[in-house]
Every structure is written in structure tokens, then in C-alpha cells.
């Protein structure tokens, strides 16, 4: 027994030593936040003070050195994220993930985002290129100087980072543009639906928002069938990735604030990730003093303020993408048909390296419109002899958006701010603006195509590529883009909803966001005579669902009582105030009810396409339940001989929802909580897809809100495993007080560091989830208070 005890003690000691050594090794990957570091490429010494949450405040003697130092801190804290971003942009995920990401790589290689970025770089001005060069030099200087282990992801995957380049930065901006542009996916969905539904049915299922009746477009289903009868037998829809399409911003002038100066707020809604998409920073150098949110890998403060102005942005949701059905020349497959006859495809060969397998060749073809989508993206959509090409403003060779971002940082007033945004190409954004002189403004810059008067598809569905009437006819002039300065009401807001009046002479889109968030924000701002920072904090955290408040009376009016449990829930829902708090059960039951109702209303019509289209569609459902233009016919189950009414389907959906909730969360309904079923989930790439690593890297916390609250927490009911989990939310919250700019506040969903063992990996996560903020101060005395270190760089 004594020998066995001795052996166990020895083994325990060895294990402890191994674990301690592993811990030390992994901790050694964390960057130094204090001390001195010599880096070639600097022009003069630089100070980097990390405040209490490790937000770097960079003080340099030149703009070159400030951007260089930004590259250093990005590499220190987010090197793996930058590596993943570069691989996404370049279609190189399969090099580390194997065959599972081949379709994604084929799609991104076909778009050629890095190639486009390289062409954009060639056309950029010298000042912009100098900033990109200085930033890349800072990233690479850190890679050369760091002699410890790399972050854990590099070690587990056996990846070595390559030098950062200016093209990598511009290519990531293209990926962000893609993330904020979903029209091509909607067009593809309409094409697929044309095999099962009429054009009128598709318009009902995918209605314009705000709804004012069907759009005046041609019967494109009949058009497709005339072009090619085989288009009536397409394959099932393939689920598309969720796009980051939401955001809120608003600004009020001094007439509506307690201070007499403007207040501005912004919270962009994007996919949650660990680490988060944003990185907070303060840059100070001659001619440069700005604080806000950056994208790791890109030398820009995208959202923030300088000493005189502040700005925030939301996605305009413009239609800047069109799909074209290209007809391959039957006599020569290297050519396709155009209005002036057959033209030759532009072709290139690529080779996709695949971890653990042979490299996969890829032939990329382009037409006069743009690249052909690879087969995996159009699977079953087109018969042989046809292909789909993508026309997209972000693929243009001339894109000085980066220059616009740089010039914006130096703007001192409205005129210089607007002048900077002349170079902004996309994706089109709704900028709100405020300055210390008391002005507020709004502008929506970006490159938006002009469609010809004879274009009877309006970019809603794929167009015949050989018909010239569907070609773009230039772009909306910058001077004609929506803008306003100091409006009489003294308030401006946007929430991806409609930003132009019905008489605006240009077509932007028919797919605005539903008005719920926008209406709630506008009502809140007008309901109070004077606002302060705390008011704006409350509004950013507002969890009253306008969709629930509007929609629930429809359900209650149609629902029959049913059994005792159903009657009890109907009574609770009648008393519910539509606040989607995490500790309430009513939001869970309401959303589950809508989920089952959606299934009953359109699963029969869509058949095998239902799974790919299963999500909350409130405008469509409202039109059906209101029997707008006879749309109550969707309530009938076409698989039965009798005709079901909407009242029957609404009544059947609630007990079905309750049964599903019991299966998921237990039979004791007293334990049901919206927050437990609806956690905010920040996914790690790629370790959220590795079972034993997921709990270590992924972030989760119960939250309130829903897809339509100001405090957005967007869920996707079609995800069977977790239909209520919130995967898109406010990735950043910022409130700027132009009366006392250093009293402004911001917070990100996660933390500054991308390294899991860092105390700053998730130190803002709980703050973010509970509507708390960090100080957004440029004042040295403020950020040095509680600072965790100062790193001094020297040449």
C-alpha cells in the first residue's frame, strides 16, 4: 500500500508539473502590456497606455508611428482573428479546416476579393498607401520581435502567420461589405422559389418593406419558364449564411439635451463572435486624435469621435448586387451570349490547398457582369447551358472607401465630413453626425446602381444577362444621395428602415427593415423634452418588442381557448407588456407560438424548400392574418381536402408550441425563462465547432431582447438545435456627449484580447450583457487611472 501511495503521489506531482508547465507556456503567449520594446520601422518613441480594460491609448510623434503602433497592438491582441479574417477573404480556410470549408473557399475565390483589393490598392492615393504600409509594418514588426509561443489557436492547428500586407487590410473591408449585402442571396432564393410558387406568391412571401402593395415588376416566373422550360424543375433551396444587416443610430441637437449640446448614439448589430469584431483604441499624433472602434487588420477608426465631431453608422440595405442568368453559347462553351453577340469568358485557374487531402483545382470564369457563382452556391438552380454571374459594386476596380475613412478621421465640421465621404463606395451606410458647435446631420454615402426605366425586375430576381435593359446605367450621383443638416425637429435616427420619402427619384431598395426599431426609437426621442447620456443608455437597452406589441393582438383575436393550459397562457399573454426581459416566460411562449404558426402557414407550399426559408417573417404573417389582398389563403393546408382557416392554424399553433417547449425545457413551466432559452452566443472560429474546445472559447450569457427590439438579440427559428439563441446583437454600443466628450461611453461584446487566457478576453462580456459601459475618454488623467500598463516603443 505504501508503494502504491508513493506511486500515486509521484504521478500526481508529474501531472501537476506538466499542467503547470503547459499553463506557463500558454501564458507566455500573452503580450507584454508594460515595459519597453525596440521595433525597427518606427520614426520616434511611442507610448501605449492600457487603461483598466486594456484599451490602448497610443501617443505618437507622427501619424506614421501611430498607425504602426496600431498594427502592433492589433497583432498583440488579435493575431489569430486577423489570420482567420485573411483566410476568409482569400478563400483559404480549407488549408486549416480541411474539406468542410471547400464550398466556402470556392465561393470566395470565385469572387476574388483579394484580387479586387489588390487592384483597389493600385489606384489608392499615396497618403492612403502610406498608412496601410505603416500599419502592416507594425504588425510584422511585432511578429518578428515576439519570441514567445504564438496564441493557442496557432499551436493547436500548426499554423504559422505570414507577413501582413496592405491587400489583406483592404480585402477584409470587402468581406465586411459582403456581410452587409444580402440581395444576391434573396435573388437566388426567388429564383429557386419560382419552381414552386408564382411570382405573385413570391412577392407575398418576400414582401417589400414597408408594405404598400406588390411591386410593379414583371412576372419573372413566367419569364424564366419562357426562357428555359427546365427552370420549372429546380432543386431545393440551400440555406444561406445569416447576414449582418441591423444597427441603430440616433442623434439629437442641443434643444433636446440637458447640456445644450448634441448627443449621439450608435450600436451596430452584427454576428457575435469571440473575440468580437471590434477593437477599441485611442490614437493621438500631430493631426490625429481619435477614439473609437477599429476592425483588427484594418488601420481605421470606423465608428467614434475626434476632438470636434462624432459619427456612427447603420446599414442602408441598398440593392447593390444583381444576379444575371448567363446563357452559354451552345456552339462554343468558352463563350456566352451578350446583347452584341457571343463573348469569351475571362478565365483563371486556382488551386485550393486542403488540409489532409489533395489540393483541389478551381476554374473561375467571369462575364461582362462579373464572376460566375460556383456550382455549390447554385446547386440545382439552373439547367445545363446556363450560369449565374454576380454584378456587385464592391468588385469595381476603383474603390477609394479606405481613403474616405482616413479623411473622415480628420474632419472638423460638417462640410469636411461630407467631403471626406465623397470617396465612400460601400457598403452604403446611414451616417449620423454631431459636432461641438451644436450641428447634427445625416448622410447615406455609397455607390448605388442606376437601373434603367425599362428594367422591370428592379434587381429583385436574376435577370437575363443577354438583355441590355437589365444592365446598370451608372450610379446615383453623390449630390443626390440622402442627406440633411440640422433638421427642424432636431432629431435624426435610423434603424435600417426606410430613409427616403416615396417621392425620392432614385431606387435604393425594396427590402428595408421592418419599422419596429425605428418607430420605437423615434417615439422615445420625441417623448422626452431633454435627454442625457443615461437616457440614451436606457434606450440602447430597451427590450420592448414593437413586433410583439403589434402582432400579439392578431393572435389573441383569432385563437380559441383550447385546454386549461392553453387558456392559462392566453390569459398571461393578454396581460403581457411586450417587454422581452430575460427573466420572463411570455417572450419565449410568444416566439414559440409564432414559430409553430409559421410552420403551419407556409411549410406545405414550400415543401422541401421550407427548411432553408424557415424564419420569422412578420410582414408576411401580418398580411396573411389580416387577409390583405386575399392572402389568408396561405392558411389553408394544401395537403388536405378541406380548407383550413387562419383562426384554426393560430389555435393549433399554441398547443404545438407549448408541447415543443416542454420537450426542450421541461414540464415545469415555472422554470421557463426567455434568457435561458435565448442566450447571447459569441462563436469562436473555428473552435466552436470542436466539441471539447467549444466550452473554453465560446461565450454565452442569458439576455433579453429579440430581433425587433432596440436592444437587438436576433435569433433564427429555423435552427432546430437552438431556435431561440441570439447570435446577432449589438456588437458595439457607443454614446457621445458633445458637451463633455470625455464623459462619452462605449463597450464591445467580449473584450480586447483574442487570447483565451488573457483577463481581457471577456471582461466586457458581462458589462455588455447588463447594459454597462466603459469610459470613452481621451484625457490622460482619466485613462491612466487604473491603467494596467504602459508599453514604450522605440526605433
Descriptive report:
α2 (63-90) packs across α6 and α5 crosses α8. Among the domains are: 246-318 and 402-451 and 478-540, Aminohydrolase, N-terminal nucleophile (Ntn) domain (Glutamine Phosphoribosylpyrophosphate, subunit 1, domain 1, 4-Layer Sandwich), CATH 3.60.20; 546-579 and 585-672. The chain contains 25 helices and 30 strands. Strands 1-30-2-3-6-7-8-9-16-17-21 form an eleven-stranded mixed sheet, covered by helices on one side. Strands 4, 5, 22, 25, 26, 27, 28 and 29 form an eight-stranded antiparallel sheet that branches. The chain has a three-stranded mixed sheet with strand order 15-10-19, with helices on one face. The radius of gyration is 27 Å and the shape is globular. A hairpin with a 7-residue loop joins β13 (346-352) and β14 (360-366). With 795 residues, it is an alpha+beta fold. Mean pLDDT is 93; it is low at 9-24 and 232-244. 51% of the residues are buried. It comes from Plasticicumulans acidivorans. Belongs to the peptidase S45 family. One of its GO terms (biological process) is antibiotic biosynthetic process. Heterodimer of an alpha subunit and a beta subunit processed from the same precursor. Keywords: Calcium, Hydrolase, Metal-binding, Zymogen.
Amino acid at each position: 500500500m505504501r508503494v502504491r501511495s508513493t506511486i500515486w503521489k509521484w504521478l500526481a506531482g508529474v501531472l501537476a508539473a506538466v499542467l503547470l508547465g503547459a499553463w506557463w507556456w500558454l501564458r507566455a503567449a500573452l503580450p507584454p502590456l508594460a515595459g519597453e520594446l525596440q521595433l525597427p520601422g518606427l520614426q520616434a518613441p511611442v507610448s501605449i497606455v492600457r487603461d483598466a480594460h486594456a484599451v490602448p491609448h497610443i501617443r505618437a510623434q507622427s501619424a506614421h508611428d501611430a498607425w504602426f503602433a496600431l498594427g502592433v497592438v492589433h497583432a498583440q491582441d488579435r493575431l489569430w482573428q486577423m489570420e482567420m479574417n485573411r483566410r476568409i477573404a482569400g478563400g483559404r480556410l480549407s488549408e486549416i479546416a480541411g474539406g468542410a470549408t471547400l464550398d466556402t473557399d470556392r465561393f470566395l475565390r470565385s469572387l476574388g476579393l483579394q484580387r479586387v483589393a489588390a487592384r483597389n490598392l493600385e489606384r489608392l492615393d499615396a497618403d492612403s498607401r502610406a498608412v496601410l504600409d505603416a500599419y502592416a509594418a507594425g504588425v510584422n514588426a511585432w511578429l518578428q520581435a515576439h519570441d514567445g509561443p504564438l496564441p493557442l489557436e496557432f499551436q493547436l492547428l500548426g499554423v504559422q502567420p505570414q507577413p501582413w500586407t496592405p491587400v489583406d487590410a483592404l480585402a477584409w473591408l470587402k468581406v465586411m461589405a459582403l456581410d452587409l449585402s444580402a440581395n444576391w442571396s434573396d435573388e437566388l432564393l426567388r429564383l429557386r422559389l419560382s419552381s414552386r410558387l408564382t411570382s405573385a406568391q413570391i412577392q407575398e412571401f418576400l414582401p417589400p418593406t414597408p408594405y404598400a402593395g406588390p411591386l410593379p415588376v414583371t412576372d419573372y416566373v413566367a419569364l424564366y419558364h419562357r426562357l428555359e422550360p427546365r427552370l420549372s424543375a429546380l432543386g431545393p433551396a440551400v440555406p444561406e449564411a445569416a447576414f449582418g444587416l441591423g444597427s441603430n443610430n440616433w442623434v439629437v441637437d442641443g434643444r433636446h439635451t440637458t447640456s445644450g449640446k448634441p448627443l449621439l448614439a450608435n450600436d451596430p448589430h452584427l454576428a457575435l463572435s469571440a473575440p468580437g469584431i471590434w477593437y477599441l483604441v485611442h490614437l493621438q499624433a500631430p493631426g490625429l486624435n481619435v477614439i473609437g472602434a477599429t476592425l483588427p487588420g484594418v488601420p481605421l477608426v470606423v465608428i467614434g469621435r475626434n476632438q470636434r465631431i462624432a459619427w456612427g453608422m447603420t446599414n442602408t440595405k441598398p440593392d447593390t448586387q444583381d444576379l444575371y442568368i448567363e446563357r452559354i453559347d451552345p456552339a462554343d462553351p468558352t463563350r456566352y451570349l451578350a446583347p452584341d453577340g457571343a463573348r469569351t469568358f475571362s478565365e483563371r485557374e486556382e488551386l485550393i490547398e486542403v488540409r489532409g487531402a489533395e489540393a483541389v483545382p478551381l476554374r473561375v470564369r467571369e462575364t461582362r457582369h462579373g464572376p460566375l457563382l460556383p456550382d455549390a452556391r447554385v446547386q440545382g438552380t439552373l439547367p445545363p447551358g446556363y450560369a449565374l454571374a454576380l454584378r456587385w459594386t464592391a468588385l469595381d476596380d476603383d474603390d477609394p472607401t479606405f481613403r474616405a475613412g482616413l479623411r473622415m478621421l480628420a474632419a472638423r465640421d460638417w462640410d469636411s465630413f461630407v467631403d471626406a465621404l465623397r470617396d465612400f463606395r460601400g457598403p452604403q451606410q446611414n451616417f449620423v453626425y454631431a459636432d461641438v458647435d451644436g450641428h447634427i446631420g445625416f448622410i447615406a454615402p455609397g455607390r448605388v446602381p442606376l437601373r434603367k426605366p425599362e428594367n422591370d425586375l428592379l434587381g429583385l430576381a436574376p435577370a437575363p444577362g443577354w438583355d441590355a435593359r437589365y444592365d446598370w446605367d451608372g450610379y446615383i450621383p453623390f449630390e443626390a444621395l440622402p442627406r440633411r443638416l440640422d433638421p427642424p425637429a432636431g432629431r435624426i435616427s435610423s434603424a435600417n428602415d426606410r430613409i427616403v420619402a416615396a417621392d425620392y427619384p432614385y431606387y435604393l431598395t425594396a427590402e428595408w427593415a421592418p419599422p419596429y426599431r425605428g418607430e420605437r426609437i423615434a417615439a422615445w426621442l420625441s417623448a422626452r423634452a431633454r435627454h442625457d447620456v443615461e437616457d440614451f443608455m436606457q434606450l440602447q437597452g430597451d427590450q420592448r418588442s414593437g413586433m410583439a406589441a403589434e402582432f400579439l393582438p392578431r393572435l389573441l383575436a383569432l385563437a380559441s381557448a383550447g385546454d386549461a393550459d392553453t387558456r392559462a397562457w392566453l390569459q398571461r399573454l393578454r396581460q403581457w407588456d411586450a417587454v422581452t426581459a430575460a427573466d420572463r416566460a411570455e417572450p419565449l411562449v410568444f416566439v414559440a407560438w409564432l414559430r409553430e404558426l409559421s410552420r403551419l402557414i407556409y411549410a406545405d407550399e414550400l415543401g422541401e424548400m421550407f427548411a432553408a426559408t424557415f424564419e420569422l417573417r412578420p410582414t408576411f404573417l401580418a398580411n396573411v392574418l389580416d387577409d390583405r389582398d386575399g392572402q389568408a389563403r396561405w392558411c389553408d393546408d394544401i395537403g388536405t381536402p378541406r380548407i383550413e382557416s387562419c383562426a384554426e392554424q393560430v389555435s393549433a399553433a399554441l398547443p404545438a408550441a407549448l408541447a415543443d417547449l416542454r420537450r426542450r425545457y421541461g414540464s415545469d413551466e415555472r422554470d421557463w425563462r426567455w434568457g435561458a432559452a435565448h442566450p447571447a452566443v459569441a462563436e469562436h472560429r473555428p473552435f466552436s465547432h470542436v466539441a471539447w474546445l467549444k466550452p473554453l472559447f465560446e461565450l454565452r450569457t442569458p439576455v433579453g431582447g429579440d430581433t425587433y427590439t432596440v436592444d437587438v438579440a436576433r435569433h433564427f427559428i429555423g435552427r432546430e438545435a437552438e431556435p431561440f439563441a441570439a447570435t446577432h446583437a449589438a456588437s458595439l454600443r457607443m454614446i457621445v456627449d458633445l458637451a463633455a466628450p470625455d464623459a462619452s461611453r462605449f463597450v464591445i461584446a467580449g473584450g480586447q484580447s483574442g487570447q483565451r487566457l488573457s483577463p481581457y478576453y471577456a471582461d466586457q462580456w458581462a458589462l455588455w450583457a447588463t447594459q454597462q459601459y466603459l469610459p470613452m475618454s481621451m484625457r490622460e488623467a482619466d485613462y491612466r487611472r487604473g491603467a494596467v500598463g504602459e508599453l514604450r516603443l522605440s526605433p
